[in-house]
Amino acid sequence: EAGVAQSPRYKIIEKRQSVAFWCNPISGHATLYWYQQILGQGPKLLIQFQNNGVVDDSQLPKDRFSAERLKGVDSTLKIQPAKLEDSAVYLCASSFTNLPGQNTGELFFGEGSRLTVL
Amino acid sequence: SQQGEEDPQALSIQEGENATMNCSYKTSINNLQWYRQNSGRGLVHLILIRSNEREKHSGRLRVTLDTSKKSSSLLITASRAADTASYFCATDRGGTYKYIFGTGTRLKVLA
User: Fold this and answer.
1) Four-CA torsion B43, B67, B107, B82, nearest 10 degrees
2) Are A16 and A81 within 8 A, CB to CB?
3) Cβ contact (<8 Å) for A43 and B2?
4) What residues of A are in contact with residue B100 (Cβ under 8 Å)?
5) Is the peptide bond prior to A43 cis by the omega test (within 30 degrees of 0)?
6) Is A26 on the interface with B (CB under 8 A)?
7) For residue A58, with 0-12 CB atoms within 10 Å meaning exposed, 13-18 middle and 19 or more buried, which class applies?
8) Under a CB-based contact definition with an 8 Å cutoff, are residues B7 and B105 in contact?
9) What are the chain A neighbours of B53 within 8 Å (beta carbons)?
10) Digits of tens for pLDDT over chain B (111 positions)?
């Protein structure tokens, strides 16, 4: 079974530039998450999708971050314009979520996209 | 905001010893999970314990959950150098499948 794919693995940009990250979840996984992990900290949830709908984006800085999940499969996270404090690893995770009570609960993570903003 | 807080923040032990790390959380949960993260890699699921369970085992891992104290512990027995990693707890509030991660414990196992 293929895992969660993310690209690019590394990206270096100047502040005020834009960047986009792509995620392809495990086939059949309805729930997709984007997390931001700053060095030395735990992952912080940015946005959660169920199929192609947003379940929670309360921690997403919407003035500069946007995310979409086309056709309930792949997802793209965009930052525009980037700030120095956006330097972090952006982790995508997916989960098999069926009916309530049948969720396996396990999140499968990709290797992450490391962003450095200069 | 971080739902869970792990302690200790860092732990260094000798190979063969047991490692215990704790997680405290703030609100009622549906389940609690533990994940491992090797340096520069994504997170890997270790074990899930539901709110109606008190203890769970998986290989050298033992997890306990005390919902009255809003805390969980992860015990790794007979540790190996390969167990060197960061360990995070994650909680799901009320069946929303919204998983919030703690601050993590950095474990170093010395050969």
Assistant:
1) -60
2) yes
3) no
4) 45
5) no
6) no
7) exposed
8) yes
9) none
10) 456 788 899 999 999 999 999 999 988 888 899 999 999 899 999 999 999 999 999 999 999 999 999 999 999 999 999 999 999 999 987 667 889 999 999 999 999
